[in-house]
What does this fold into?
Amino acid sequence: MNPVPNPSGASTMTPPQRPAVAVPPRAHTRWWGVRLHGRLALWAWPLALSLVMVLGVLVWMKAQDAADRESARGDMITDALSLEAQISSRLEAEQAKLRALADDLGKGQVAPSAFATHPLVLDGLRRFWVSVSWIGADGQLISAAPSDQLPPNDQRRVAQEDAGMAGHLSVPWRHAGDRADLPSGLLVARYGAAVLLRQKVPWWLASRYDIRLVDQSDVVLASTAEGPRQPWQAWYRVPMGPSMPQAWLELSSRERHAPWWRRWPVALMLAFVGLLSVTSLMLRRQMLGVERAEAAWRTEAAWRKAIEDSVVVGIRARDLDGRLVYVNRAMADMVGYRQDELVGLLPPMPYWAPDEIELAWQRHRRNMAGLAPREGYESRWRHRDGTPLDVMVFEAPFVDAKGQQIGWMASILNITERKRLEERERRQTETMAHHARLTMLGEVASTLAHELNQPLSAIASYNAGLQNALAGRDDLPERIQTALSRQGEQAAQAGRIVRRIREFLTRREPQREPCQVSDIVHSGVHLLRRDLARHGVTLQLALDAGLPEVEADPILIEQVVVNLIRNASDALQARPAGAVRRIDVQAHLAGAGFVVIAVHDNGPGLHGQGIETLCAPFHTTKPEGMGMGLAICRSIVELHYGAMDAGDSPLGGAVVSFTLPVAILSIQEDNS
Ligand code: ADP
It folds into this structure.
């Protein structure tokens, strides 16, 4: 973009009140019926997208958490079932051992006293059992172990294991062989439930779960944990097999499973959203600030453009190379180019006058050197349509915000009209001076004519007397008579000339009266009819019927008409003999207030001469012409408040015309 210079130092200028300038409306977005400001929506986008992302992550985490819980629960169920199977198989193995003991008892090989030392009993006690009771068919205790027979270490262990809740394994024993029909009894082995768990629960399982054996009424039989199950613990129970009826194996997870929304990633994400919200608000504030500044700038720019467009002074800015970097509309209109056509151009400029190119270059070099006159200088340019243009240019350095000169700024005034008026004034002054000289000359000529009139009359009288006196003399030589006669003629001619001059110079003030144009024209034509006939000129009158009366001095206007017809007749003499020589005198109403009288001919024409040239005093193309006829005609017409004009006639020659104001009376009559 081209730099937009600030005409007339607008940066320091603070207008009293800014006009309301229409600022282009801002873009709005319609989103689900909510009208969002485009820029505001822009700042909210990152926040909105982040929220969507965070929400997505949270949903995913929730789903993941549910899946994790489900999977953990599945694992727990599997672990519970597998542990239950192991414990059951262990109990079944113990029961098998007990059954083997029962078989031994049934065979009658074991005496009640030797029961406590029976290898199977001892082995069982050492291994797992806390006590074994041999109960007879009548429910009496036949024998029981342990007894003092156990080594001290085992006794201590058994005492420890016996401390907690116990489980029982019982198998019936029957007499074998021929005593099979004798009533049988029961063999009951007691074991520490805690020992069962301790022995069968692997460490990795114990590290993951609290494992309990509970009965039907939730009484804990054995547990790997210290206290009761906590409410937050996930748990699962499986019923124990027939080896341990009415008991349940319960696994409760040791891992404290925090709800998914109380985890670190969620906290981090919330912190992230919080931070983003803060930054978004800051961004919004920033954007609003920028937007306000932009709106102010737009108003400023529109305001400045309105000023630039309204000024009639041309403004142009050039860089240091002389390249046009800015022109306002007035400047562009002045030279007839568009602003964008001018911007970027380097000299020579298209509006420089072609005949003054060298001068324009010199001026340009001087201006670029910073030597342009402060009071401005005149220059001659050319409009695009070729019209010459006079301008007054005021150059000033073009300085940027840092105070550095970056070019030249100029204001340009179109002074063409002013120059034209000056020229016209100059010409008028010249003409007035000329007229003054003419007046003086007229006075001199008038005096001279007056003074010469007497002696010339005297010469004529003397000559007439002399001729009369010598009329009867025959001895008078022929030559003298002829000379006297010529002398008389010349004296008469001189007298006529002097009289004509006097008549001409004693021009009287016009005595205006309402009169008919046709009467004046007819009278003038009448005076000239013989002359015209002699010169073979045909004259036609085309006077509009019903023309209003004009306010004029008929004698003076008749002189004008006579002069114009005579000039036309003189011009027609240039036509070859035999050719048609034609003069048309026309009169018609022009507008409301004037009658135009025009004299057309088919002579050689005016060769482009305008009325100014023709009416210039002493302008003549005739060998014996004085060149005063049209000048006098014009002053007579102007004395009547009319105007003269000249141009090409449709007949092929010239037309010279003049206007006369319609008599006021005629206008009133028309109106009434
Ligand atoms: P003069 O008749 O003494 O020359 P004017 O002032 O009457 O002075 O005329 C000035 C000049 O204008 C004439 O010499 C002639 O060249 C020119 N002129 C006037 N009328 C006509 C015309 N109808 N056709 C051509 N030229 C004319």
